[in-house]
Design a protein that fits this description.
Blueprint lengths: L1 E12 L2 E13 L4 E5 L6 H9 L6 E6 L10 H10 E4 L11 H5 L13 H11 L15 H13 L5 E5 L7 H16 L4 E5 L3 H6 L2 E6 L2 E5 L4 H4 L5
Parallel strand pairs: 3-7, 3-8, 5-6, 6-7
Antiparallel strand pairs: 1-2, 1-4, 8-9
Helix pairs in contact: 5-6
Length: 235
């Protein structure tokens, strides 16, 4: 589905080059459920942003279905990101002056689906996530968990094969976080959506199929059964 080959990312800060990611090689395949852990500032969000197209790597290549883009704005890569990926942001990123339903259908504005079908599809998704009764509300009228469900509904509206989520439980209380984790597990097991989640939440890591850690700018697979892992400072 998605493959990263020799991906590195550098930023210029006070005229100095700071390397955040160094020579990352990584694959995401159908029905994967992968969690990525690491200290704050380790590069988890940067990695997700590179995969989603929100951030351009300094070097290396991101392949989509084994297709090598001709450039960062390659048409095939752009279509793949648009049609096959959904992104759930840590801080929800809902449009405050749009209703719940209007927020959910935003990605459809760039699709070929006729506008008359947007409302029906949006309500169907909200119904699946048990938040259809809030479709006419505005974000400020919702709880944190409800806003996260809206954000997930927006990510699902185009039936993506892969969802990227950045700290999806980071702003939620324990009970609501557990509900959101259950929802992600259901999406993976029943809807066969591949998941790549950056997280500090041990509950997500425990329910993931594979776990990786970003340490010293590099990505490595983690054996979560290793006693060393139980006390990992990355968490």
């Amino acid at each position: 589905m998605v493959e990263l080959q020799n991906i590195s990312k550098r930023f210029v800060f006070h005229k100095e080059n700071l390397t955040v990611l160094d020579n990352i090689n990584f694959k995401i395949q159908a029905n994967d459920f992968i969690s990525i852990m690491g200290k704050s500032g380790s590069g988890k969000t940067t990695l997700l942003n590179i995969i989603s197209g929100l951030c351009k790597p300094s070097s290396g290549t991101v392949l989509f279905n084994n297709s090598k883009p001709k450039g960062f704005f390659d048409n095939y890569a752009s279509r793949f990101r648009s049609d096959s990926m959904g992104f759930v942001f840590q801080h929800f990123n809902l449009i405050p002056y749009h209703t719940v339903l209007e927020n959910v259908v935003v990605p459809l504005k760039f699709s070929s689906l006729p506008p008359k079908h947007h409302k029906r599809l949006g309500l169907d998704i909200l119904n699946q996530l048990d938040i259809h009764d809030k479709h006419h509300h505005y974000p400020h009228m919702l709880s944190g968990g409800q806003m996260q469900r809206v954000a997930i509904a927006r990510a699902l509206i185009k039936s993506p094969k892969l969802i990227l989520a950045d700290e999806p439980t980071g702003n939620l209380d324990d009970h609501t976080a557990s509900e959101i984790i259950d929802l992600f597990v259901k999406l993976n097991e029943e809807n066969h959506v591949a998941l790549l989640l950056s997280t500090h939440d041990r509950r997500i890591i425990d329910r993931s199929k594979d776990t990786y850690s970003i340490e010293n700018k590099c990505l490595k697979k983690v054996d979560t059964g290793d006693p060393v892992y139980q006390f990992s400072k990355s968490l």
